[in-house]
Amino acid sequence: MDNVAVVVDDLEAAVAFFTELGMELEGEADIEGIWADRTVGLDGVRSAIAMMRTPDGHGKLELTKFHTPAAITTGPPNPPPNTLGLHRVMFAVDDIDDTITRLRRHGAELLGEVAQYENLYRLCNLRGPAGIIVALAERIGRSAAAAVQ
Question: The whole model's pTM is what?
Fold first, then answer.
């Protein structure tokens, strides 16, 4: 997989949110032209993108702000986690409580609560930019594979 793309209404705020999460801005570009129209399947595409990458360089998130045609909303705002389509994007973090605190300053809202899965992880879901769900996972124990060794 090369990247996951998320359409946002405020590109600057989304970049700040994911930077706070530990991602790095790789680059920004304005996108338009016949190739963009053909690729996306819309006419008159004009958008701005910011490519974010994980600190290890293996994962990328493309944040896209459509200028034309304007982005549309399908369905209710802030759909519940069981809505069809992309469910969430999960990030591994070192300190889930600190991460939640920092992301709340960027408008994140905790969905439910922080829960522990066995003796392995603390997990939660947050509502992030453009209503997307961002999950956080803090490893707290050894994996089953490590326990066997």
Answer: 0.85
